[in-house]
Amino acid sequence: MLKLSLAALSREEVHAQWEIPADHPMWENTRLELSEPLHVEVFAHEVGEGVLVRGRMRTVLDLSCRRCLTRVRREIDEPVDLLFEPLTGEERDELEGEVYPLPMRGTELDLSESLREQLLLTIPEYVICAEACRGLCPQCGVDRNQATCECTPEQGSGPWDALKNFTFD
Ligand SMILES: [Zn+2]
Ligand SMILES: [Zn+2]
Question: Residue 109 pairs with which residues in a beta bridge?
Fold first, then answer.
């Protein structure tokens, strides 16, 4: 899966599509949790010594709200735009993330690592279930979207409280 034949690429443009199951081993040991399969469709052709792979990928990621930890489903529908070049080790370090190494030998171009990386880049830094999410109570852990608790905010727990005791000489 996610492999293109280099022999076919040397002859013509290659069109390919795949559906990778949400529980496929390629998502193991990553931060990626899919709640739907990943659909990938690409067109690939040679450019100079390299290969340009363009298309689209779609899936639904399972994330969790940074405030209340609820599951948040995030639809992903992103362009795929990957360039593979025969790189030396040094060039590879320099161009990391922009250009992927084209295998020097072998008969296939494996897209799985680059696509996994591209998918990781789509995860937003700060995921919240809703702008108005009130999060969990830091003292008793109750979900403040669902219930209220009797906890009173601790003295000195606000971000600016430390400044109150601060005196300027
Ligand atoms: Zn939330
Ligand atoms: Zn509480």
Answer: 4
